[in-house]
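Course exercise 7: structure representation. Students receive a sequence record and must write out the corresponding structure in C-alpha coordinate form. The form below is the worked example handed out in class, using Angiotensin-converting enzyme (575 residues). Read each field label carefully; the graders check that inputs and outputs are placed in the correct fields and that the protein name is recorded exactly as given.

STUDENT ID: A-19
EXERCISE PROTEIN: Angiotensin-converting enzyme
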Amino acid sequence: MKWLEEYNEELRQRQAKSAEANWAQSTNITDENAAKVVDVTMELTKWSLKKMEEGKKFDTSGFSDDVKRQFGMITKSGSSSDEEKTRKVAEIGTELEKIYSTSTACLPSGTCLKLDPDLEGILAKSRDYDRLTWAWLSWRDAVGPPMKDKYAEWVALMNEGAQENGYADKGVIWRGAYEMPNDTLEEMVDGVWEKVKPLYTQLHAYVRRKLSETYGEDKVLTTGHIPAHLFGNMWAQQWNNIYDIVVPFPDQPAIDVSDTMVEQGYDPLRMFKTAEAFFVSIGLRPMPQTFWDKSMITRPDDREVVCHGSAWDFYHLPGDTDVRIKMCTKVNQEDLQTIHHEMGHVEYYLTYEDQKTLYRGGANPGFHEAVGDTIALSVNTPGHLKKIGLLQNIEGNQGTEFQINELLKMALSKVAFLPFGLLIDKWRWRVFSGDITPDKFNTEWWNLRMKYQGIKPPVERTDEDFDPGAKYHIPSGTPYIRYFFSFVAQFQFQQALCEEAGHDGPLHTCDIYQSKKAGAKLKNMLSMGESKPWPEAMKAITGQDKLDPSAILKYFEPLEKWLREQNKNEELGWE
Ligand SMILES: C[C@H](N[C@H](C(=O)O)[C@@H]1CCCN1C(=O)[C@@H](N)CC(=O)O)C(=O)N1CCC[C@H]1C(=O)O
Ligand SMILES: [Zn+2]
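STUDENT ANSWER:
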Protein backbone atom coordinates (compact mmCIF):
# COMPACT_ATOMS: atom_id res chain seq x y z
CA MET A 1 0.00 0.00 0.00
CA LYS A 2 1.19 3.47 -0.93
CA TRP A 3 1.41 4.98 2.55
CA LEU A 4 3.58 2.11 3.71
CA GLU A 5 5.89 2.22 0.68
CA GLU A 6 6.40 5.94 1.17
CA TYR A 7 7.04 5.35 4.88
CA ASN A 8 9.75 2.78 4.18
CA GLU A 9 11.49 4.97 1.60
CA GLU A 10 11.43 8.06 3.83
CA LEU A 11 12.63 5.98 6.79
CA ARG A 12 15.52 4.70 4.65
CA GLN A 13 16.62 8.23 3.72
CA ARG A 14 16.38 9.47 7.30
CA GLN A 15 18.29 6.49 8.69
CA ALA A 16 20.98 7.09 6.06
CA LYS A 17 21.25 10.71 7.22
CA SER A 18 21.41 9.64 10.86
CA ALA A 19 24.17 7.11 10.13
CA GLU A 20 26.23 9.76 8.33
CA ALA A 21 25.95 12.21 11.24
CA ASN A 22 26.87 9.51 13.79
CA TRP A 23 29.77 8.36 11.62
CA ALA A 24 31.11 11.92 11.37
CA GLN A 25 31.07 12.24 15.17
CA SER A 26 32.45 8.75 15.87
CA THR A 27 35.41 9.31 13.53
CA ASN A 28 36.06 12.88 14.62
CA ILE A 29 34.74 13.75 18.08
CA THR A 30 34.01 17.50 18.15
CA ASP A 31 31.31 19.67 19.79
CA GLU A 32 30.14 20.67 16.31
CA ASN A 33 29.72 17.05 15.16
CA ALA A 34 28.03 16.16 18.45
CA ALA A 35 25.54 19.00 17.94
CA LYS A 36 24.74 17.69 14.46
CA VAL A 37 24.05 14.23 15.89
CA VAL A 38 21.62 15.80 18.36
CA ASP A 39 19.84 17.73 15.58
CA VAL A 40 19.51 14.69 13.32
CA THR A 41 18.26 12.57 16.24
CA MET A 42 15.64 15.25 17.02
CA GLU A 43 14.47 15.31 13.38
CA LEU A 44 14.23 11.51 13.17
CA THR A 45 12.35 11.28 16.49
CA LYS A 46 9.86 14.01 15.56
CA TRP A 47 9.19 12.38 12.18
CA SER A 48 8.78 8.92 13.75
CA LEU A 49 6.26 10.24 16.30
CA LYS A 50 4.28 12.03 13.56
CA LYS A 51 4.17 8.85 11.46
CA MET A 52 3.24 6.80 14.54
CA GLU A 53 0.13 8.96 15.03
CA GLU A 54 -0.74 8.61 11.33
CA GLY A 55 -0.17 4.85 11.50
CA LYS A 56 -2.48 4.48 14.48
CA LYS A 57 -5.37 5.82 12.38
CA PHE A 58 -5.39 2.78 10.09
CA ASP A 59 -7.71 -0.13 10.73
CA THR A 60 -5.24 -2.95 10.05
CA SER A 61 -7.65 -5.81 10.84
CA GLY A 62 -8.07 -6.69 7.16
CA PHE A 63 -4.40 -6.36 6.27
CA SER A 64 -1.95 -9.22 5.64
CA ASP A 65 0.28 -10.50 8.47
CA ASP A 66 3.21 -8.84 6.75
CA VAL A 67 1.54 -5.41 6.64
CA LYS A 68 0.33 -5.87 10.23
CA ARG A 69 3.93 -6.63 11.27
CA GLN A 70 5.16 -3.40 9.69
CA PHE A 71 2.39 -1.35 11.30
CA GLY A 72 3.24 -2.95 14.63
CA MET A 73 6.80 -1.64 14.26
CA ILE A 74 5.67 1.83 13.14
CA THR A 75 3.20 2.35 15.98
CA LYS A 76 5.69 1.47 18.74
CA SER A 77 7.91 4.22 20.12
CA GLY A 78 9.65 4.90 23.39
CA SER A 79 10.38 8.56 22.73
CA SER A 80 8.85 11.50 24.54
CA SER A 81 6.87 14.04 22.53
CA ASP A 82 8.49 16.74 24.68
CA GLU A 83 11.23 18.09 22.41
CA GLU A 84 13.35 19.39 25.27
CA LYS A 85 13.44 15.92 26.87
CA THR A 86 14.38 14.31 23.55
CA ARG A 87 17.12 16.87 23.02
CA LYS A 88 18.47 16.31 26.54
CA VAL A 89 18.53 12.51 26.03
CA ALA A 90 20.49 12.94 22.80
CA GLU A 91 22.89 15.46 24.37
CA ILE A 92 23.65 13.28 27.39
CA GLY A 93 24.20 10.37 25.02
CA THR A 94 26.91 12.19 23.09
CA GLU A 95 28.50 13.47 26.35
CA LEU A 96 28.72 9.98 27.89
CA GLU A 97 30.21 8.44 24.73
CA LYS A 98 32.74 11.29 24.55
CA ILE A 99 33.84 10.72 28.17
CA TYR A 100 34.33 7.01 27.43
CA SER A 101 36.16 7.56 24.13
CA THR A 102 38.50 10.38 25.16
CA SER A 103 39.31 9.82 28.86
CA THR A 104 42.86 8.84 29.80
CA ALA A 105 44.71 7.71 32.93
CA CYS A 106 47.88 9.67 33.74
CA LEU A 107 51.05 8.34 35.34
CA PRO A 108 52.95 10.39 37.96
CA SER A 109 55.43 11.16 35.16
CA GLY A 110 52.63 13.00 33.35
CA THR A 111 52.29 10.45 30.55
CA CYS A 112 48.60 9.84 29.93
CA LEU A 113 47.41 6.42 28.73
CA LYS A 114 44.35 5.81 26.55
CA LEU A 115 42.03 2.84 27.08
CA ASP A 116 42.76 1.53 23.58
CA PRO A 117 45.51 0.43 23.14
CA ASP A 118 47.40 1.40 26.33
CA LEU A 119 45.30 0.35 29.34
CA GLU A 120 43.74 -2.63 27.57
CA GLY A 121 47.28 -3.63 26.59
CA ILE A 122 48.40 -3.62 30.23
CA LEU A 123 45.42 -5.74 31.29
CA ALA A 124 46.13 -8.17 28.42
CA LYS A 125 49.89 -8.53 28.87
CA SER A 126 51.07 -7.51 32.34
CA ARG A 127 51.51 -10.19 35.01
CA ASP A 128 52.40 -7.62 37.68
CA TYR A 129 49.58 -7.65 40.24
CA ASP A 130 50.05 -4.01 41.32
CA ARG A 131 50.44 -2.68 37.78
CA LEU A 132 47.22 -4.49 36.84
CA THR A 133 45.51 -2.95 39.87
CA TRP A 134 46.71 0.52 38.87
CA ALA A 135 45.40 0.21 35.28
CA TRP A 136 42.11 -1.36 36.35
CA LEU A 137 41.44 1.33 38.98
CA SER A 138 42.71 4.31 36.97
CA TRP A 139 40.30 3.62 34.10
CA ARG A 140 37.35 3.41 36.47
CA ASP A 141 38.39 6.56 38.34
CA ALA A 142 38.75 8.39 35.01
CA VAL A 143 35.30 7.63 33.58
CA GLY A 144 33.02 6.61 36.47
CA PRO A 145 32.59 9.74 38.60
CA PRO A 146 32.13 12.10 35.60
CA MET A 147 29.38 9.82 34.21
CA LYS A 148 27.40 8.90 37.31
CA ASP A 149 24.96 11.79 37.68
CA LYS A 150 24.56 12.22 33.90
CA TYR A 151 23.68 8.54 33.63
CA ALA A 152 21.06 8.80 36.37
CA GLU A 153 19.45 11.75 34.55
CA TRP A 154 19.61 9.85 31.24
CA VAL A 155 17.80 6.84 32.75
CA ALA A 156 15.07 9.04 34.23
CA LEU A 157 14.47 10.81 30.90
CA MET A 158 14.41 7.55 28.93
CA ASN A 159 11.92 6.10 31.40
CA GLU A 160 9.68 9.16 31.08
CA GLY A 161 9.64 8.66 27.31
CA ALA A 162 8.73 5.01 27.74
CA GLN A 163 6.01 5.74 30.30
CA GLU A 164 4.52 8.47 28.04
CA ASN A 165 3.94 5.68 25.52
CA GLY A 166 2.34 3.33 28.01
CA TYR A 167 5.36 1.19 28.90
CA ALA A 168 6.25 0.52 32.54
CA ASP A 169 9.90 1.47 31.82
CA LYS A 170 12.60 1.51 29.12
CA GLY A 171 13.58 -2.08 29.93
CA VAL A 172 10.21 -3.35 28.65
CA ILE A 173 10.93 -1.71 25.29
CA TRP A 174 14.47 -3.15 25.15
CA ARG A 175 13.25 -6.70 25.90
CA GLY A 176 10.48 -6.19 23.33
CA ALA A 177 13.06 -6.58 20.55
CA TYR A 178 12.81 -10.37 21.16
CA GLU A 179 9.02 -10.49 20.81
CA MET A 180 8.70 -12.94 23.74
CA PRO A 181 5.08 -13.48 24.88
CA ASN A 182 4.30 -11.82 28.25
CA ASP A 183 7.78 -10.26 28.39
CA THR A 184 9.40 -13.60 29.28
CA LEU A 185 12.86 -12.89 27.84
CA GLU A 186 14.57 -12.83 31.25
CA GLU A 187 12.92 -16.10 32.25
CA MET A 188 14.11 -17.69 28.99
CA VAL A 189 17.75 -16.61 29.34
CA ASP A 190 17.77 -17.57 33.05
CA GLY A 191 16.75 -21.08 32.01
CA VAL A 192 19.60 -21.26 29.51
CA TRP A 193 22.07 -19.96 32.14
CA GLU A 194 21.05 -22.68 34.61
CA LYS A 195 22.02 -25.29 32.00
CA VAL A 196 25.46 -23.81 31.21
CA LYS A 197 26.37 -22.70 34.77
CA PRO A 198 27.92 -26.07 35.73
CA LEU A 199 30.36 -25.79 32.82
CA TYR A 200 31.23 -22.20 33.76
CA THR A 201 31.70 -23.26 37.39
CA GLN A 202 34.24 -25.89 36.34
CA LEU A 203 36.17 -23.38 34.21
CA HIS A 204 36.07 -20.85 37.07
CA ALA A 205 37.54 -23.34 39.58
CA TYR A 206 40.30 -24.42 37.20
CA VAL A 207 41.32 -20.83 36.33
CA ARG A 208 41.16 -19.81 40.02
CA ARG A 209 43.65 -22.56 40.87
CA LYS A 210 46.01 -21.49 38.05
CA LEU A 211 45.79 -17.80 39.02
CA SER A 212 46.47 -18.70 42.64
CA GLU A 213 49.59 -20.62 41.58
CA THR A 214 50.69 -17.66 39.43
CA TYR A 215 50.06 -14.77 41.86
CA GLY A 216 50.30 -16.63 45.17
CA GLU A 217 47.72 -17.83 47.64
CA ASP A 218 47.83 -14.48 49.48
CA LYS A 219 46.65 -12.60 46.36
CA VAL A 220 44.29 -15.28 44.96
CA LEU A 221 42.53 -17.69 47.31
CA THR A 222 41.64 -21.13 45.93
CA THR A 223 38.09 -20.68 47.21
CA GLY A 224 35.46 -17.99 46.66
CA HIS A 225 35.62 -15.02 44.30
CA ILE A 226 38.56 -14.22 42.01
CA PRO A 227 39.99 -10.65 41.79
CA ALA A 228 38.52 -9.11 38.60
CA HIS A 229 41.73 -7.62 37.17
CA LEU A 230 43.67 -10.86 36.55
CA PHE A 231 41.81 -12.20 33.51
CA GLY A 232 43.71 -10.39 30.74
CA ASN A 233 40.73 -8.14 30.04
CA MET A 234 39.63 -4.75 31.45
CA TRP A 235 36.15 -6.14 32.19
CA ALA A 236 36.96 -9.82 32.86
CA GLN A 237 34.45 -10.52 30.09
CA GLN A 238 36.68 -12.93 28.13
CA TRP A 239 39.81 -14.63 29.44
CA ASN A 240 41.68 -15.63 26.24
CA ASN A 241 44.64 -13.36 27.06
CA ILE A 242 45.63 -15.49 30.07
CA TYR A 243 45.72 -18.69 27.99
CA ASP A 244 49.52 -18.76 28.53
CA ILE A 245 48.97 -18.88 32.32
CA VAL A 246 46.29 -21.56 32.33
CA VAL A 247 47.26 -23.76 29.34
CA PRO A 248 46.73 -27.41 30.41
CA PHE A 249 49.54 -28.98 28.34
CA PRO A 250 52.25 -26.36 27.73
CA ASP A 251 54.47 -28.73 25.76
CA GLN A 252 51.86 -29.18 23.03
CA PRO A 253 52.29 -27.06 19.85
CA ALA A 254 51.17 -23.45 20.38
CA ILE A 255 47.78 -22.43 18.96
CA ASP A 256 47.84 -18.68 19.65
CA VAL A 257 48.77 -17.02 16.36
CA SER A 258 49.29 -13.39 17.46
CA ASP A 259 53.09 -13.60 17.29
CA THR A 260 52.98 -15.43 13.93
CA MET A 261 50.76 -12.70 12.50
CA VAL A 262 53.38 -10.09 13.38
CA GLU A 263 56.23 -12.27 12.11
CA GLN A 264 54.42 -12.77 8.80
CA GLY A 265 54.00 -9.04 8.41
CA TYR A 266 50.22 -8.93 8.81
CA ASP A 267 48.80 -5.40 8.86
CA PRO A 268 45.18 -4.39 9.50
CA LEU A 269 44.31 -4.40 5.80
CA ARG A 270 45.57 -7.95 5.36
CA MET A 271 43.56 -9.02 8.41
CA PHE A 272 40.40 -7.56 6.82
CA LYS A 273 41.18 -9.22 3.46
CA THR A 274 41.72 -12.57 5.23
CA ALA A 275 38.32 -12.30 6.90
CA GLU A 276 36.63 -11.25 3.65
CA ALA A 277 38.14 -14.27 1.84
CA PHE A 278 36.41 -16.66 4.26
CA PHE A 279 32.96 -15.12 3.80
CA VAL A 280 33.42 -15.11 0.00
CA SER A 281 34.60 -18.75 0.10
CA ILE A 282 31.16 -19.87 1.33
CA GLY A 283 29.29 -17.73 -1.20
CA LEU A 284 28.65 -14.53 0.77
CA ARG A 285 29.47 -11.14 -0.77
CA PRO A 286 32.85 -9.43 -1.01
CA MET A 287 33.11 -5.99 0.63
CA PRO A 288 32.06 -3.28 -1.90
CA GLN A 289 34.68 -0.73 -3.00
CA THR A 290 33.09 1.96 -0.81
CA PHE A 291 33.81 -0.30 2.19
CA TRP A 292 37.55 -0.09 1.50
CA ASP A 293 37.34 3.62 0.63
CA LYS A 294 35.33 4.78 3.65
CA SER A 295 36.00 2.40 6.56
CA MET A 296 38.33 3.49 9.39
CA ILE A 297 40.48 0.47 10.27
CA THR A 298 43.27 2.14 12.28
CA ARG A 299 43.30 4.84 14.93
CA PRO A 300 44.02 8.22 13.29
CA ASP A 301 46.77 10.22 15.01
CA ASP A 302 45.31 13.68 14.39
CA ARG A 303 41.88 13.56 16.04
CA GLU A 304 39.75 11.97 18.74
CA VAL A 305 37.67 8.97 17.62
CA VAL A 306 35.46 6.28 19.16
CA CYS A 307 37.90 3.36 19.04
CA HIS A 308 35.45 0.68 20.18
CA GLY A 309 34.97 -1.49 17.07
CA SER A 310 31.68 -1.24 15.20
CA ALA A 311 29.93 -2.05 11.90
CA TRP A 312 27.82 0.50 10.07
CA ASP A 313 24.90 0.25 7.62
CA PHE A 314 24.20 3.46 5.66
CA TYR A 315 20.87 2.13 4.37
CA HIS A 316 21.64 2.85 0.73
CA LEU A 317 19.63 1.34 -2.10
CA PRO A 318 20.99 -1.91 -3.58
CA GLY A 319 23.57 -1.09 -6.25
CA ASP A 320 24.71 1.96 -4.30
CA THR A 321 25.77 0.03 -1.21
CA ASP A 322 27.59 1.83 1.59
CA VAL A 323 28.62 -0.33 4.55
CA ARG A 324 31.68 0.29 6.79
CA ILE A 325 33.69 -0.84 9.82
CA LYS A 326 35.30 1.51 12.31
CA MET A 327 38.04 -0.05 14.42
CA CYS A 328 41.42 0.87 15.90
CA THR A 329 42.91 -2.43 14.71
CA LYS A 330 45.96 -3.99 16.38
CA VAL A 331 47.77 -6.94 14.80
CA ASN A 332 46.80 -9.86 17.03
CA GLN A 333 44.41 -12.83 17.12
CA GLU A 334 41.90 -11.03 19.34
CA ASP A 335 41.44 -8.25 16.74
CA LEU A 336 41.27 -10.82 13.93
CA GLN A 337 38.33 -12.30 15.84
CA THR A 338 36.73 -8.86 16.21
CA ILE A 339 37.14 -8.20 12.49
CA HIS A 340 35.19 -11.39 11.73
CA HIS A 341 32.57 -10.30 14.25
CA GLU A 342 32.15 -6.89 12.61
CA MET A 343 32.25 -8.28 9.08
CA GLY A 344 29.48 -10.69 10.09
CA HIS A 345 27.30 -7.64 10.75
CA VAL A 346 28.26 -6.27 7.33
CA GLU A 347 27.36 -9.53 5.56
CA TYR A 348 23.95 -9.40 7.25
CA TYR A 349 23.48 -5.78 6.04
CA LEU A 350 24.44 -6.83 2.50
CA THR A 351 22.24 -9.95 2.46
CA TYR A 352 19.03 -8.19 3.59
CA GLU A 353 19.59 -4.92 1.69
CA ASP A 354 16.67 -5.72 -0.66
CA GLN A 355 14.25 -5.90 2.25
CA LYS A 356 11.86 -3.07 3.13
CA THR A 357 13.65 -0.63 5.43
CA LEU A 358 11.62 -1.77 8.46
CA TYR A 359 12.99 -5.27 7.90
CA ARG A 360 16.64 -4.24 7.43
CA GLY A 361 17.63 -5.62 10.83
CA GLY A 362 18.50 -8.91 12.52
CA ALA A 363 15.79 -11.53 13.21
CA ASN A 364 16.57 -10.31 16.72
CA PRO A 365 19.70 -8.39 17.87
CA GLY A 366 21.28 -11.66 19.06
CA PHE A 367 21.19 -13.03 15.51
CA HIS A 368 23.14 -10.00 14.32
CA GLU A 369 25.80 -10.68 16.93
CA ALA A 370 26.07 -14.35 16.06
CA VAL A 371 26.87 -14.21 12.32
CA GLY A 372 30.55 -13.22 12.46
CA ASP A 373 31.28 -15.26 15.58
CA THR A 374 29.83 -18.38 13.93
CA ILE A 375 32.22 -17.98 11.00
CA ALA A 376 35.09 -17.34 13.44
CA LEU A 377 34.41 -20.72 15.09
CA SER A 378 35.65 -22.27 11.82
CA VAL A 379 38.48 -19.76 11.38
CA ASN A 380 39.92 -20.42 14.86
CA THR A 381 40.22 -24.18 14.40
CA PRO A 382 43.88 -25.21 14.25
CA GLY A 383 43.01 -26.97 11.00
CA HIS A 384 41.91 -23.72 9.39
CA LEU A 385 44.74 -21.66 10.86
CA LYS A 386 47.09 -24.19 9.28
CA LYS A 387 45.26 -23.90 5.93
CA ILE A 388 45.93 -20.14 5.87
CA GLY A 389 49.54 -20.59 7.00
CA LEU A 390 49.23 -19.17 10.51
CA LEU A 391 49.97 -22.49 12.19
CA GLN A 392 52.82 -24.64 10.86
CA ASN A 393 54.00 -27.37 13.19
CA ILE A 394 50.81 -29.36 13.64
CA GLU A 395 50.07 -32.56 11.75
CA GLY A 396 46.55 -33.82 10.93
CA ASN A 397 44.29 -34.69 13.81
CA GLN A 398 45.98 -34.07 17.11
CA GLY A 399 45.93 -36.14 20.32
CA THR A 400 43.72 -35.65 23.35
CA GLU A 401 46.09 -33.22 25.05
CA PHE A 402 46.18 -30.92 22.02
CA GLN A 403 42.39 -30.94 21.77
CA ILE A 404 42.03 -30.09 25.49
CA ASN A 405 44.31 -27.08 24.93
CA GLU A 406 42.21 -26.03 21.93
CA LEU A 407 38.89 -26.41 23.78
CA LEU A 408 40.23 -24.61 26.84
CA LYS A 409 41.37 -21.66 24.72
CA MET A 410 37.93 -21.43 23.08
CA ALA A 411 36.22 -21.76 26.49
CA LEU A 412 38.24 -18.78 27.77
CA SER A 413 36.47 -16.69 25.12
CA LYS A 414 33.05 -18.29 24.94
CA VAL A 415 32.19 -19.97 28.25
CA ALA A 416 33.82 -17.26 30.40
CA PHE A 417 31.69 -14.68 28.62
CA LEU A 418 28.25 -16.20 29.42
CA PRO A 419 27.65 -14.78 32.94
CA PHE A 420 29.03 -11.40 31.82
CA GLY A 421 26.68 -11.37 28.80
CA LEU A 422 23.78 -12.09 31.14
CA LEU A 423 24.42 -9.68 34.01
CA ILE A 424 24.91 -6.38 32.13
CA ASP A 425 21.23 -6.05 31.19
CA LYS A 426 20.04 -7.65 34.42
CA TRP A 427 21.62 -4.61 36.05
CA ARG A 428 20.13 -2.19 33.47
CA TRP A 429 16.62 -3.73 33.51
CA ARG A 430 16.59 -3.21 37.29
CA VAL A 431 17.93 0.33 36.90
CA PHE A 432 15.14 1.12 34.42
CA SER A 433 12.49 -0.50 36.64
CA GLY A 434 13.68 1.60 39.60
CA ASP A 435 14.66 -1.51 41.56
CA ILE A 436 18.25 -0.22 41.53
CA THR A 437 18.37 3.47 42.47
CA PRO A 438 21.35 5.76 41.71
CA ASP A 439 22.62 5.58 45.30
CA LYS A 440 22.99 1.82 44.81
CA PHE A 441 24.21 1.73 41.16
CA ASN A 442 27.68 0.49 42.07
CA THR A 443 26.84 -1.77 44.99
CA GLU A 444 24.25 -3.64 42.92
CA TRP A 445 26.64 -3.78 39.92
CA TRP A 446 29.18 -5.61 42.08
CA ASN A 447 26.54 -7.82 43.68
CA LEU A 448 25.65 -9.05 40.19
CA ARG A 449 29.32 -9.37 39.12
CA MET A 450 30.00 -11.45 42.26
CA LYS A 451 26.85 -13.55 41.95
CA TYR A 452 27.12 -14.45 38.25
CA GLN A 453 30.84 -14.30 37.44
CA GLY A 454 32.29 -15.28 40.81
CA ILE A 455 34.70 -12.33 40.69
CA LYS A 456 35.34 -9.43 43.10
CA PRO A 457 36.90 -5.97 42.78
CA PRO A 458 40.68 -5.94 43.51
CA VAL A 459 40.13 -2.86 45.70
CA GLU A 460 37.25 -1.52 47.80
CA ARG A 461 34.42 0.05 45.75
CA THR A 462 31.82 2.53 47.01
CA ASP A 463 28.68 4.13 45.62
CA GLU A 464 30.76 7.23 44.82
CA ASP A 465 32.21 5.08 42.01
CA PHE A 466 30.32 4.17 38.84
CA ASP A 467 32.03 1.04 37.48
CA PRO A 468 29.26 0.23 34.94
CA GLY A 469 30.46 3.36 33.09
CA ALA A 470 33.78 1.64 32.43
CA LYS A 471 32.13 -0.71 29.92
CA TYR A 472 31.38 0.79 26.48
CA HIS A 473 27.79 -0.40 26.14
CA ILE A 474 26.61 1.47 29.25
CA PRO A 475 27.62 5.03 28.19
CA SER A 476 26.75 4.24 24.56
CA GLY A 477 23.31 2.93 25.56
CA THR A 478 23.70 -0.31 23.62
CA PRO A 479 21.67 -3.26 24.96
CA TYR A 480 23.76 -6.29 25.89
CA ILE A 481 21.57 -9.44 26.27
CA ARG A 482 22.06 -9.81 22.49
CA TYR A 483 25.58 -11.10 23.18
CA PHE A 484 24.41 -13.73 25.67
CA PHE A 485 21.88 -14.87 23.06
CA SER A 486 24.61 -14.92 20.41
CA PHE A 487 27.21 -16.83 22.44
CA VAL A 488 24.68 -19.68 22.80
CA ALA A 489 23.03 -19.43 19.35
CA GLN A 490 26.34 -19.35 17.41
CA PHE A 491 26.97 -22.97 18.43
CA GLN A 492 23.50 -23.96 17.20
CA PHE A 493 24.27 -22.20 13.91
CA GLN A 494 27.70 -23.84 13.64
CA GLN A 495 26.21 -27.28 14.33
CA ALA A 496 23.63 -26.78 11.57
CA LEU A 497 26.13 -25.37 9.06
CA CYS A 498 28.67 -28.14 9.77
CA GLU A 499 26.01 -30.79 9.16
CA GLU A 500 25.13 -29.03 5.89
CA ALA A 501 28.82 -28.94 4.95
CA GLY A 502 29.01 -32.71 5.52
CA HIS A 503 31.43 -32.43 8.44
CA ASP A 504 31.92 -35.57 10.48
CA GLY A 505 33.79 -35.69 13.78
CA PRO A 506 33.52 -33.46 16.84
CA LEU A 507 31.96 -30.02 16.35
CA HIS A 508 35.07 -28.18 17.57
CA THR A 509 37.12 -29.45 14.62
CA CYS A 510 34.59 -28.31 12.01
CA ASP A 511 35.69 -25.76 9.40
CA ILE A 512 33.02 -24.78 6.82
CA TYR A 513 35.61 -22.94 4.67
CA GLN A 514 34.65 -23.08 0.96
CA SER A 515 31.38 -24.90 1.66
CA LYS A 516 28.88 -23.23 -0.69
CA LYS A 517 26.14 -25.47 0.74
CA ALA A 518 26.70 -24.21 4.28
CA GLY A 519 26.92 -20.66 2.94
CA ALA A 520 23.62 -21.03 1.11
CA LYS A 521 21.90 -22.21 4.30
CA LEU A 522 23.29 -19.25 6.24
CA LYS A 523 22.41 -16.82 3.44
CA ASN A 524 18.84 -18.13 3.32
CA MET A 525 18.36 -17.18 6.98
CA LEU A 526 20.19 -13.83 6.69
CA SER A 527 18.05 -12.72 3.74
CA MET A 528 14.95 -12.85 5.97
CA GLY A 529 16.21 -9.88 7.99
CA GLU A 530 13.58 -8.85 10.52
CA SER A 531 10.64 -9.89 8.31
CA LYS A 532 9.55 -12.78 10.55
CA PRO A 533 9.62 -13.47 14.34
CA TRP A 534 13.08 -14.86 15.24
CA PRO A 535 11.91 -18.46 16.01
CA GLU A 536 11.10 -18.79 12.29
CA ALA A 537 14.63 -17.66 11.38
CA MET A 538 16.07 -20.05 13.98
CA LYS A 539 14.00 -22.85 12.43
CA ALA A 540 15.17 -21.91 8.93
CA ILE A 541 18.81 -22.47 9.84
CA THR A 542 18.72 -25.08 12.63
CA GLY A 543 15.31 -26.77 12.46
CA GLN A 544 14.70 -25.77 16.10
CA ASP A 545 12.69 -22.71 17.16
CA LYS A 546 14.37 -22.04 20.51
CA LEU A 547 17.62 -20.77 22.01
CA ASP A 548 19.08 -24.15 22.99
CA PRO A 549 22.39 -24.59 24.89
CA SER A 550 22.75 -28.26 23.93
CA ALA A 551 25.05 -27.33 21.02
CA ILE A 552 27.53 -25.36 23.16
CA LEU A 553 27.43 -28.08 25.83
CA LYS A 554 28.11 -30.74 23.18
CA TYR A 555 30.99 -28.66 21.77
CA PHE A 556 32.71 -28.45 25.17
CA GLU A 557 31.77 -31.93 26.45
CA PRO A 558 35.34 -33.36 26.28
CA LEU A 559 36.66 -30.28 28.13
CA GLU A 560 33.99 -30.42 30.85
CA LYS A 561 34.90 -34.06 31.53
CA TRP A 562 38.59 -33.15 31.78
CA LEU A 563 37.86 -30.15 34.04
CA ARG A 564 35.74 -32.25 36.42
CA GLU A 565 38.71 -34.60 36.75
CA GLN A 566 41.12 -31.68 37.31
CA ASN A 567 38.82 -30.04 39.87
CA LYS A 568 38.22 -33.20 41.94
CA ASN A 569 39.69 -31.57 45.06
CA GLU A 570 38.55 -28.00 44.38
CA GLU A 571 35.81 -26.26 46.33
CA LEU A 572 33.59 -25.43 43.34
CA GLY A 573 31.69 -22.13 43.12
CA TRP A 574 31.90 -18.91 45.11
CA GLU A 575 28.58 -18.32 46.87
C1 LIG B 1 33.38 -5.05 19.46
C2 LIG B 1 31.87 -5.13 19.43
N1 LIG B 1 31.31 -3.83 19.02
C3 LIG B 1 29.85 -3.77 18.90
C4 LIG B 1 29.34 -4.91 18.00
O1 LIG B 1 29.91 -5.15 16.94
O2 LIG B 1 28.37 -5.56 18.44
C5 LIG B 1 29.46 -2.37 18.35
C6 LIG B 1 29.32 -1.38 19.50
C7 LIG B 1 27.92 -1.57 19.97
C8 LIG B 1 27.12 -2.10 18.77
N2 LIG B 1 28.12 -2.36 17.76
C9 LIG B 1 27.93 -2.46 16.40
O3 LIG B 1 28.84 -2.56 15.62
C10 LIG B 1 26.51 -2.45 15.85
N3 LIG B 1 26.37 -1.30 14.95
C11 LIG B 1 26.27 -3.74 15.07
C12 LIG B 1 24.81 -3.84 14.62
O4 LIG B 1 23.96 -4.00 15.52
O5 LIG B 1 24.54 -3.73 13.42
C13 LIG B 1 31.38 -5.51 20.83
O6 LIG B 1 31.06 -4.62 21.60
N4 LIG B 1 31.36 -6.81 21.21
C14 LIG B 1 31.71 -7.95 20.41
C15 LIG B 1 31.47 -9.17 21.29
C16 LIG B 1 31.09 -8.70 22.65
C17 LIG B 1 31.00 -7.19 22.61
C18 LIG B 1 31.98 -6.55 23.59
O7 LIG B 1 33.11 -6.25 23.16
O8 LIG B 1 31.61 -6.39 24.77
ZN1 LIG C 1 28.34 -7.07 17.17
